Structures are given as C-alpha cells and as structure tokens.
Amino acid sequence: MEFFSRNDNGSMMAEDVSVSFLARQYGTPLYVYSEKALREHFSEFEQSAGDFPHLICYAVKANSNLSILRLMASLGAGFDIVSGGELARVIKAGGDPAKVVYSGVAKTESEISAALNAGILSFNVESEAEMERISRVAVSGNTTARISVRVNPDVDAGTHPYISTGLKTNKFGVPVERAFNLYKRALELPGIKIVGIDCHIGSQLTSLAPFEDALDRIVMLITRLKNEGIVLEHIDVGGGLGVVYNDEVPPSRKSYMDVIINKIRGLNIKLICEPGRSMVANAGILVSRCEYLKEGETVNFCIVDTAMNDMIRPSLYQAWMKIEEAEMNQNASDAVYNVVGPVCETGDFLGKDRHLQVAAGDYLVMQGAGAYGFSMSSNYNSRPRACEVMVSGSDHRIIRKRETIEDLWRGEEL
C-alpha cells in the first residue's frame, strides 16, 4: 500500500490528508508519519516469522518519538536500545523492559544499573571490559545480568562505511575468533548469566548474501559453544534490512525472515531481530517550504526552510532521498535545482540535481524520512527542531510540538 501518494488532482496525500494542508496547519519543517504504515510494517515482520519462536525488537535509535514507541509496544514489540535515555523513553511509552535488548559500546555503570533494576531481557556485550563492568554492577546490586555476546563476523555488508558495523575495522562487537573465549570467561564471572548471541553487520543492506555469510559463522560458533555445554536461549540477528530511497531493490521482509529461519531452524533457539529503518523510514516524510529560487552561473538553487540540522543524512552519508512537489504548480518552470537549506555550511543540502517545477512558497516533500531524521536532528545555528505529526486515515495530531526560541537556551545560565 502507498501511504504517501498523489490523488487524482495531483496533490500529495498522507493517507487521507493533504500534505499541503498539514504544512499550512502545523508549519514547516514538518515530519509526518503514517500510523497505517507503521502497523503494516510491524505486521509483515510478525507474519513472516510465523510460528517460529521470535521477538521483534524495534531499534529505538531510528525514531524514538514516544507515540511511535507506544504504538510499537501496543503491537507487542520489544525494543533494541543503545543508551539509558532510550531505555527511559521505552519505559515512559509503556514498553516492557523484559523485552528490551541493550546494545552499544560504551554502557556506563549508571546505565547498566538502571537496566538491571528495570529487568531488561539481555545486554549485548561489546567487549571483555564491558562484561567485567556488568558483572561488578550486578554483584553490587545483588542481582544477575543476562548477557549475549555481540560477535563481529568480519563480513562486508556492502553498504556506506559509516553504517557498516560488521568488519574488523569497526568498533562494534567481539571478533568471531575471540568470542568463544569470552563466553568461557563469562562462565567464571559472578552475576552473569549467558542467554544468547548477537550479531549486526550494518544498515541499509539490499542483498541477503551478507546476512547468510554472517549467519553461517554465527551458527558454527553456536554449535561449538553447545559442544562445550554452553546452550543459548536466543540468537539476535540485529537489523539492517534496506529500504527503497531511489532505485534500490531490497529483499522483502518475508524473504529476509525465511533466510534467517532456515539457517537456525535446527538449533532449538529463539530468534530476535532489530528492525529500525525498515520499520519507519518509508512511514514518514519531511515537508519543507521553498523560500527562494536562486539562479547561479552553473547551478540553480531551491532554498528551503529545512536544513541539515533537520535531516543530516544527505550531508553525513551522501544519502539520496526523493524530493518532490506537494502540489503540481503548472505556473512554475521545470528546472534542475540543488535543494539547500539555511544553515551556514556548504554541506547543508537535501538533494542535488533535482528536476522540480516549483516557485517560492510551494511545499516540497522528502520521502523516506521516517528513520534517522528527527532522531539525528540538532539545534545547530540555533534553529528550533521541527514539529512531528501522526496521520491515521483522515485524522492527524501533533506527537511533538515545534520547539520555541526559548527552548534553545533551556538549562543554560547567564
């Protein structure tokens, strides 16, 4: 189903609501999310897993809005977190801590303690030093920490280097050849209970081959551990399934789950996966207003009110995201523009070499903006962060108010 598409009059719609209407109602920059899309994407993961024992843990970092987290919790999701702040968000939204897996390479003592007190499902251990710290905190709190070891299988995911996580040169996890000894060490530590194994090789993967390669290495390790008497409850395969931004052809959620389940079916083990981008990216758009058209000697600029502080992916990752008109303006000329924002950086662009038929005052829509958009936004150049709106059919509501100027210095002292 298309959740953001044009009606017969050429107007871009968010479910049953005109995007231009939303922009006039709530202002721009504006993030708009489709509740139907979020529900459908989660349902596809659930249905694809079928009756195989599993838990879908939504990756909070992709989009951590409380309303989205509450929706996920209501659907039965668990959560993949990477900070104490994300754990607090999950709990505030009504998520079940017993369905939380805690990833991240720099867990502090206070974060570990809070997670233990909350009763999370598992820590994904990233290093021996971290495991020693978890042990000490657990013992001091007279409790037991459930742990999985995050294994780095040294698999090239074929994605942008900034979102690759499964190579030896990446900071994440424990090299596969050293993981066995770390499990043996875990047996010796007080306050530690081994429950699983974890692997995440990168983001925006459009081929199943890297997943298969990584799983082959992880399954071999699971078998070796079992032969040593270390029997695991679950395998956490991370996330990383790609989405369509331009002309990518990522695997379906069904084929992704089929490959994983076929690899682990005989292991008598529960499956955990951590979809983030594939859950929310195409459930959201970012709406901008054209402020000026500027003709240069070699490049034309469409200058909008949205900047890299609102959506940093194009600048940070050289990410291509589709940009199109909210309404078809027949009175405007069709031209090629670099779509740029107000921030004082040459890297402040949303898209380059885009064919647009646009005039000052028109609204533009960036597709695929639901993941790593608002969650990576900032107040750079003292710009208040955007408003977020949820649409369900013909209903719409604010799920985050636009920041005010006064919000910019909240907490500061003269």
Structurally, the number of domains stands at 2
Tally the beta strands: 21
Mean pLDDT: 93
Q: Low-confidence runs (pLDDT<50, min 5 residues)?
A: 159-167
Main β-sheet, in a few words?
9 strands, mixed
Give the termini separation. Answer: 52 Å
What structural category characterises the helix and strand content?
alpha/beta
If you consult CATH, what is the topology of the largest domain?
TIM Barrel
Per DSSP, what share of the residues sits in E-state strands of 2 or more residues? Answer: 25-35%
CA-atom Rg in angstroms:
23 Å
CATH architectural group of the largest domain: Alpha-Beta Barrel
Provide the CATH superfamily of the largest domain. Alanine racemase
Helix content: 25-40%
Number of helices: 11
Give the class-level CATH name of the largest domain: Alpha Beta
What characteristic shape results from the CA principal axes? elongated
